[in-house]
Specification:
- This protein has about 350 residues and is an alpha/beta fold.
- Helix content is about 40%, strand content about 15%.
- It has 13 helices and 11 strands.
- It has helices at about 5, 15-25, 30-35, 45-55, 60-70, 85-100, 120-125, 140-145, 185-195, 210-225, 240-255, 265-280, 315-330, and strands spanning about 75-80, 105-110, 130-135, 155, 175-180, 200-205, 235, 260-265, 290-295, 310, 340-345.
- Strands 2-1-3-4-5-11-10-9-8-6-7 form an 11-stranded mixed sheet, with helices on both faces.
- Helix 6 (about 85-100) packs across helix 13 (about 315-330) and helix 11 packs across helix 12.
- The termini are far apart.
């Protein structure tokens, strides 16, 4: 019987950047630049280096590079949900855009109350991400910052009276960047359209009460209706889901007098309202009741729904998030950065 070492397969030595540089007849620095999409390098030279690197099965050592550059090329994403249509579509678009910029993503999910286990936050810190995007408001900046080291978090903010910059009274001063989703313009167009059709009894199909997006949409609708002396909207309790939208709409019409129009907190719950009106209550949309959603998810234009909705342009929002990350990495000591994403009404078949 031969020796144990004689029977073990000897793995070939891992290719190094120096080996790639020698084979491509370039400097070691040129090899590093070839793997950095932002680094200046002639296209033909980059292509030659990457081809030779592939032939040698060379990949850069991210951990070693991070020690030198203090950048991990990792972006953390904290979300309350990964299954709902809006969140899944945004995660997909954002991951694609970040990968195009040379970043990998780390996905973390909150509890159902939008809070996050501090064990997970400690785990996140171990990855030392370059940036963290928080799509949930209950993991507050002063808490998140304790676990991030050099990274500055990015928050999605929905400006409204009293919380224009996303800060809450009494919170410690903490540096964070933000995307401001300006809902006023799109919702103003929605209310004007309903008023033009003579709608006076309008219901608001709500989301979860502790959501800032829900609170901002409800208070914006109330303010816009007050400006037109239309009174307050009736409120249909909801939680952003199809099922709650369906059940709440049935209750509204069977237990109350019904309404001329429903403005939903998001498109998914608007789908529930539409199906309840058409199939359970046997009402016509838009002739008997008009329906407006919010977000303009991909399913909103499907012929079975053909939903009029307040659009948050997903590509615009994703590009703004990527810009914030790149701006912060370029100037780590900059004061709070912000970008604004505006909304607009997309008119389809559920109003008319």
């Amino acid at each position: 019987m031969g020796s144990l070492t004689g029977r073990l397969k000897v793995e070939p030595a891992r290719a190094t950047a120096e080996m790639v540089a020698e084979a491509a007849q370039v400097s070691r620095a040129a090899v590093s630049r070839a793997f950095n999409p932002q680094a200046p390098l002639k296209p033909e030279k980059r292509a030659r280096i990457l081809r030779i690197a592939e032939e040698l099965s060379y990949t850069p050592d991210r951990a070693a590079r991070a020690l030198v550059t203090r950048r991990t090329h990792l972006v953390g994403i904290i979300v309350p949900d990964v299954c709902s249509p809006w969140e899944s579509q945004e995660i997909d678009a954002l991951t694609t855009a970040l990968q195009a910029e040379g970043f990998a993503t780390l996905l973390f999910k909150t509890r159902t109350d939008f809070s996050m286990d501090e064990t997970l936050l400690t785990y996140m810190r171990g990855f030392n991400p370059d940036s963290v995007i928080a799509f949930t408001e209950n993991v507050r900046p002063h808490i998140l910052a304790r676990f991030l080291g050099r990274a500055v978090p990015i928050y999605i903010n929905y400006p409204m009276a009293g919380v224009a910059d996303g800060r809450r009274p009494g919170e410690p001063e903490t540096l964070f960047d933000r995307i401001d989703v300006d809902q006023w313009e799109g919702m103003e167009q929605a209310v004007a359209l309903l008023a033009g059709y003579g709608c006076r009894r309008i219901a608001y199909l709500s989301g979860k009460r502790d959501s800032l997006a829900e609170q901002a949409r409800r208070t914006t609708l109330q303010a816009l209706m007050a400006r037109r002396a239309m009174g307050d909207p009736a409120v249909i309790p909801g939680d952003f889901s199809y099922d709650a939208g369906y059940a709440g709409t049935v209750d509204l019409f069977r237990l109350g007098e019904g309404v001329d129009a429903i403005v939903a907190v998001n498109d998914e719950s608007a789908f529930g309202a539409l199906d309840a009106l058409r199939y359970e209550l046997k009402l016509r949309v838009p002739e008997d009741v008009k329906v407006i959603g919010f977000d303009d998810i991909a399913q909103s234009h499907w012929k079975s729904y053909n939903l009029t909705t307040v659009k948050v342009d997903l590509d615009t929002r994703v590009r703004a998030l990527v810009r914030l990350i790149l701006r912060r990495l370029k100037d780590p000591q900059a004061p709070a950065l912000s970008e604004t994403v505006r909304t607009r009404l997309v008119v389809r078949g559920t109003v008319g």
